[in-house]
Amino acid sequence: MDASNREEDTGRNDETEKERLDRNLEQLLGELRVALPGVQVLFAFLLVVPFNQRFAEITSFQRTVYFVTLLCATAACACLIAPSAHHRIEFRGQDKERIVFGGNRLAITGLALLATAMTGAITLVTDFLYSATTTAVAAALVALLFVILWYAIPLRRLAQRD
């Protein structure tokens, strides 16, 4: 690992603990700004689906997938927005470290819920359009894509670094 990456992880030589926490919080909130539009669009899509005329024709499986997907998207929104709410409420409380570390956990949880919701949306649409086999393959591939890109690659890098 090069020196610039080590500085990113452990702090810059000329950076105080307060400055490091400020930078970490700014980075976290910036990353959340990337994830939030996706979860909000998915959530909005899921909210209008039941008002479609063909929604009454869905199977019991599709209805369950829809409801679980809606709940996951709702929980993802809550988790991904929570760090901003925590910061806004607690920013004068001199507990930025807890906000950063708690916000990090909420962001990771929110991204896992977002991946689950997106996989659920693919499952719902694919099951409505294609066979059960195609649905299972599509859902498994989408879930695998999220696991690899969002979790396996960064966790592997962490393991290699330690």
Write the layout of secondary structure elements.
Elements: H1 3-10, H2 17-48, H3 60-90, H4 96-129, H5 132-161
Strand content: under 5%
Number of strands: 0
User: How many DSSP helices?
Assistant: 5
Estimated helix fraction: over 70%
**Domain module tally:** 1
Q: Which tags fit this structure?
A:
162 residues; mainly alpha; elongated; disordered N terminus
Structural features, described:
The structure is a single chain. The protein is mostly helical. It has one domain (15-161). The protein has five helices and no strands. It has helices spanning 3-10, 17-48, 60-90, 96-129, 132-161. α2 (17-48) runs antiparallel to α3 (60-90). The longest helix is centred in the C-terminal third of the chain and has 34 residues, at 96-129.
Give a quick summary of the entry.
The protein is mostly helical and 162 residues long. It has helices at residues 3-10, 17-48, 60-90, 96-129, 132-161. 83% of the residues lie in helices and 0% in strands.
